[in-house]
Amino acid sequence: MRKATGIIPARYGATRFPGKPLAIIAGKPMIQRVYEQAQKAKLLEQIIIATDDDRIYSASRAFAADVRMTSSDHQSGTERVAEVAAGLESPIIINIQGDEPLLQGQMIDDLVQALQDLSITMATLASKVTDLDRIHDQDIVKVVADNNGNALYFSRSPLPFRPSDHFFQHIGIYGYQKEFLLKFHTLPVSRLAVTEGLEQLRVLENGYKIKIVSTPFPALSVDNPQDIMAVEKYILKVHK
């Protein structure tokens, strides 16, 4: 079994929610909740927080995380992850989004399992949603896949246009063969990736495949301050 390294990219200056990694959720900074949830994965050799911000660095050190300072010139979390990954020996890298405080260790392990197949260069997660009203939420990224489980397209718009009973929500945790990750951030920026605001479309537009791994766990990411209330409500419910 080839194990992996998990890397959590974290920046302070998010446009819609500045300081998001340090937002307090049920008494802990969000970056700490993500880190502690990632520690529940069984197939990670190590977990590293990658940031260019002294505030995030200090907060991460306060809960004894392995944190690395990176360049402030990166245009995406993937580029930040790639900078750290370039100096690692792990053959598999998991890009763990810092706004997924409810992620489960099994979600990460499922990606690591999928990437044992060397023909799969990149994989990500999706969960089934049966509340069809949510398909119009632009903060929810939808994905459709082919019969082999490879992504056809990702969008913030309804996808498919008229689902009969469910659609699949993309969960922003990515797994890569390390070699492909280092290639990914050198790929030409693509029109659809810019139009949709979804950098994974850069992979599809340049002719590469993304394996979709289905997960039974729901996604509840934090895109704006209002989402914190929903996350805290879920945490309180689970820990009653």
Write out key terms for the chains shown:
240 residues, alpha/beta, Spore Coat Polysaccharide Biosynthesis Protein SpsA, Chain A, seven-stranded mixed beta sheet, two-stranded antiparallel sheet, single chain
Could you walk me through the main structural features you see in this protein, from its secondary elements to its overall organization?
The protein is an alpha/beta fold and 240 residues long. The chain has one domain: Spore Coat Polysaccharide Biosynthesis Protein SpsA, Chain A. The protein is built from eight helices and eleven strands. It has helices at 30-38, 54-62, 77-85, 105-114, 178-184, 191-196, 201-205, 227-238, and strands at 4-10, 24-25, 28-29, 44-51, 66-69, 92-96, 122-129, 142-145, 151-155, 167-177, 211-214. It has a seven-stranded mixed beta sheet, sandwiched between helices. Strand 4, helix 2 (54-62) and strand 5 (66-69) form a beta-alpha-beta unit. Helix 3 crosses helix 5. The chain is globular and about 50 Å long. It starts with a strand and ends with a helix. The mean pLDDT is 91.
Q: Averaged pLDDT, please?
A: 91
Rg, nearest Å:
17 Å
State the total count of DSSP E strands. 11
Structural class: alpha/beta
Q: Sheet bearing the most strands, described?
A: 7 strands, mixed
The tally of domains stands at: 1
Shape: globular
Strand content: 25-35%
Order of strands across the main sheet: 5-4-1-6-10-7-11
Q: How helix-rich are the residues, as a percent range? A: 25-40%
Q: Roughly how many Å apart are the termini? A: 36 Å
- The third-level CATH topology is Spore Coat Polysaccharide Biosynthesis Protein SpsA, Chain A
Low-confidence stretches: none
Q: Give the name of the CATH architecture.
A: Alpha-Beta Complex
Say which CATH homologous superfamily is assigned.
Spore Coat Polysaccharide Biosynthesis Protein SpsA, Chain A
Compute the number of helices.
8
Order of helices and strands: EEEHEHEHEHEEEEHHHEH
Q: What is the CATH C level class, in words?
A: Alpha Beta
